[in-house]
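Hi V.,

You were right to ask for the full record rather than a summary. Here it is.
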Amino acid sequence: MMTSSRIYSATTFLTLVILVLVLMFYTRSPIHPATYSDVPRYIPPPPARGEHPQGNLEQSLRALYNGVQTFLFFVGYARSGHSLIGAVLDAHPEIIISNFSPRNTIDRWHHYKSESKGKDDSLKLRLFFDIHSMSRFHAMCGKRASSWSCVSENHKYCYNVPGQWQGTYRDKLKVIGDQAGTSTSKLLTNPQNVKVLEDIQRTLQTKLKFIHVIRNPFDNIATKLLRSNKLHGSKVAWDANFKANDSSLLDEIIAKHFRQAESAQRLLQYGKFEVLNIYSHEVVSNPEDNLQKLCNFMEVSCDKDYIDASSKLFYSSSHLTRNFVVWSSKQKQRVVKEMEKYPFLRSFSFDSS
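Predicted structure:
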């Protein structure tokens, strides 16, 4: 009896030791979003094909990142489709896109300059490494993870493209970029930040390109109102008769929206960088042609498997959230008047797509 008790105690003790070791392993695991102070702990994946150059990881990554031809920014407005388009581009075998929102590349540029101590190659390595690491995290644990993982983390939207290259690449990288379009637009309300873009291009020694994602402002503004903290997500998802009625908040969102439109216009008028206007309703109605347009803009190939898999992620129709908001005639007129200032918004109306 004593022997049996001792065996039971030893087994219990051994089980506890194993549990402690397992917990220590998982609490030290680097499976979390890379932060600027924490990046050295987070290692991006090796090339999917081919061998690493001789040497250490740094040499391998330098060789990979030196092949990048374009640094991509998004510019535009919250709730316009940046996350969806960014996720689809990240699925391309030669593109890495991630999101540093709310502090994007422009916002952190002086930090990178300070950390690199004037060494442009070190700055480029660190910036690209950060973006690459975050892309991998999104594909493993975030909104771009497999459907089961995404749902288990309670993400409202899931942007996984099965069988494609989210978080990694095939043979080489041609494009790497920052998806935080809203943050970029806010920063570009300050004209001095436009000059920072020239420094970024000069330092990275790549082309600098922008994707301007555009949605009907009436829907864009309405969705911001419906998703505001004040309305706590609203009932719009399940109540077809619901209408949000907050005139003062709506006025505030209208003003903010067109300040961001002004930033996009400033970038277009600056004329030193290529900017592609992408209309979300056109992407939804014709994803294949618009994916090809995006690939052409970034000078990458666009094979059929990629287009077919990515096209399935787009909704079957645009969400007309404008119908779930109470608009005064004055507010409608204000939006129409503001849209007339910007060539890329003139085709819209309250009744258009």
